[in-house]
Queue: 2 jobs
Job 1
Amino acid sequence: MNAPLALTHKFVDSVPDMLEEDVLYVSIRFRTVIHKCCCGCGNQVVTPLSPSDWKLTFDGRSISLCPSIGNWKFPCQSHYWIKCNKVEWVRFTEEIDTEESLQTQAAPELVSSEGPSKPKADVGQRLLQSMQRAWLKIREKLTKN
Ligand SMILES: [Zn+2]
């Protein structure tokens, strides 16, 4: 899990049905980046782009995301930076580790799915779902005509 991993990126208009491993799907239209968790667990990681969420840097060749990506809601709990299409794994400091696991235990997803303290990832997940629904609708129309 500490091996450096090289990613590729694709600029897309909509989310593909099947995400490939090690590919960052960048949708400027939906202001979102989607990729499969870099640990290989297969979970989809959605990072909305906004001043209060993630920022995307494209240097003409590679992509960086800021801040780091912490997949606290996945069993893998992986945490990494994406810098210039490379995955930089984060070693948990004791401070972060304790804080995050306390939060996870105090607020299980099923109990508090709504509320002011809902995790950002849920927003991303909903965004992903609505994007996929929209894309399915578009595709239905295309196949009918
Ligand atoms: Zn993972």
Note: Residues 37, 39, 41, 43, 71, 74, 76, 78 surround zinc ion (CB under 6 Å).
Job 2
Amino acid sequence: MATSGTQLDPRFQECRERCTFAFATATIFQKRARRYSKYLRRLTFLGLALPLAIGGVVGADLLKKKDVLAAFIWIAGIVGVVQLVVSLWSVVARWPENLESSLAASSENSRLTEEFDALAKQVINPPLQFGNDYSKLITQDNTQRLADEKQLISDRERMYGHRAALRQFSVKCSECNAVPNSREIPRFVTTRCGTCGGKK
Ligand SMILES: [Zn+2]
């Protein structure tokens, strides 16, 4: 906890706010990275499932019966088309590139979270190089924010990140005055808080 003296130091407040913001952004990109990783695992599975299934069926010599052969060709055709469409989708939607950039943004924002947290703790009794470290970190954070904005964060993702940060730091939402009890935005609520996405 900061003393009343340190709360007056604007650098303390700035460090805390940037720490929270970087944490929120890191959780947004972690969620994205998990999603793209899942998509790519499914794509790899699809790519392996068809040839393995063909190899298994041919190996077991099951294609002598006409009805089995017809059913197999039909199923293999469907799976093949699905695989092609999903592969095309992955290229157009740039899943591998998005996974890589999400991991990089998540990692960098996690680092900024830790460093702003460490700096905020030093404001009480700042070391000699505090001013330099503070300016350097603010510059790095501004650069990272600009890079993150180019990755087009949606309103729902911002809400998710904000909610995760409120929960992490046990801070009440400024709109509904509640501390979220989970990161996930509740699916069913009659009236939703426009800031944290929780029940209002
Ligand atoms: Zn709220």
Note: Helices lie at 4-8, 10-59, 66-92, 95-122, 130-149, 155-168.
